[in-house]
């Protein structure tokens, strides 16, 4: 159980949520695990819950405290809200800003700053930890290029220009991605990004990681009452969760890419975990997908100190905290959306 920004996150599995006076009580097999006053909560997010009492749901509905239910893997299930709730105002604000490209650019640039900053951090970390195995001068030059691009992004007010700067940063970073593969180099290599379908083992891993991360961010956005399909950087397209793609930008490198590199460099997967189709697509085997998912869920349990909040949370809660910060910005409770800047 963790309280962040007036939101209670219940991360223990198989917990029943009940009401006792003005308090929420967490029960597991009739044993009381914890209790907390509800009067200063805006929402409760439960992962892998076994149920919630009607009394608790009624209490929360009457007081505009949202109850959000997720699976243990972070898939959004449902959001229980009362008759009157601020989500309508929040979503109207989201739609209004999304319709205006200038307003969208003001928000989208912070997503991109987070992405470039975290890519720069990965290059700097590799330079520090593996100086004898890489071209340090090349990594340092790329890091400086990313710093220069961040300065341009910070003052950019044009959405199309912003996409161009993001593209330049991606090229700079991707040129060195293959150099961060330190083990199994004969079997794992990265030349360029291929998506549909992935044409090599590294791209197969990246595509799977990005799809999981997109689902996590979409669930986090729905959990705070935002529309995961209406974005600022990624424009509307039928069937595409554009806002989820926006929010995950700052986490692509520092979570998904870093996770994939870890799988390869720690030899948790090898060439036998892949199959090649007639059309050239390279895919994970069923058994490899299970290993990937197990490692992904374990990674989400690792603890970090959130750079903005200064509190210890699990990696799995990062998309939820960022979604909450974005909602607060849209409600004008924050002057600016604070991107996730990992250190």
TrEMBL record:
Write down the InterPro entries for this protein, in alphabetical order: Cas1, CRISPR-assoc_Cas1, CRISPR-assoc_Cas1_C, CRISPR-assoc_Cas1_DVULG, CRISPR-assoc_Cas1_N
Q: Is Metal-binding among the key words of this record?
A: yes
Gene3D superfamilies, alphabetically? CRISPR-associated endonuclease Cas1, C-terminal domain, CRISPR-associated endonuclease Cas1, N-terminal domain
Enzyme category, top tier: hydrolase
Q: Which UniProt keywords apply?
A: Antiviral defense, DNA-binding, Endonuclease, Hydrolase, Magnesium, Manganese, Metal-binding, Nuclease
Q: Which EC number(s) does UniProt give? A: 3.1.-.-
What's an example GO BP annotation here? defense response to virus
* Annotated positions binding Mn(2+): 166, 234, 249
- Enumerate the GO terms in the molecular function aspect: DNA binding; DNA endonuclease activity; hydrolase activity; metal ion binding
What is the top-level taxon of the source organism? Bacteria
Establish whether keyword Nuclease is in the entry: yes
Q: Which cofactor does it need?
A: Mg(2+); Mn(2+)
Entries under PANTHER family matching the protein: CRISPR-ASSOCIATED ENDONUCLEASE CAS1 1 (PTHR34353)
Instruction: Report the family membership.
Output: Belongs to the CRISPR-associated endonuclease Cas1 family.
Q: How does it assemble?
A: Homodimer, forms a heterotetramer with a Cas2 homodimer.
Function of this protein?
CRISPR (clustered regularly interspaced short palindromic repeat), is an adaptive immune system that provides protection against mobile genetic elements (viruses, transposable elements and conjugative plasmids). CRISPR clusters contain spacers, sequences complementary to antecedent mobile elements, and target invading nucleic acids. CRISPR clusters are transcribed and processed into CRISPR RNA (crRNA). Acts as a dsDNA endonuclease. Involved in the integration of spacer DNA into the CRISPR cassette.
What is the protein name given in its UniProt record? CRISPR-associated endonuclease Cas1
Source lineage = Bacteria, Bacillati, Bacillota, Bacilli, Bacillales
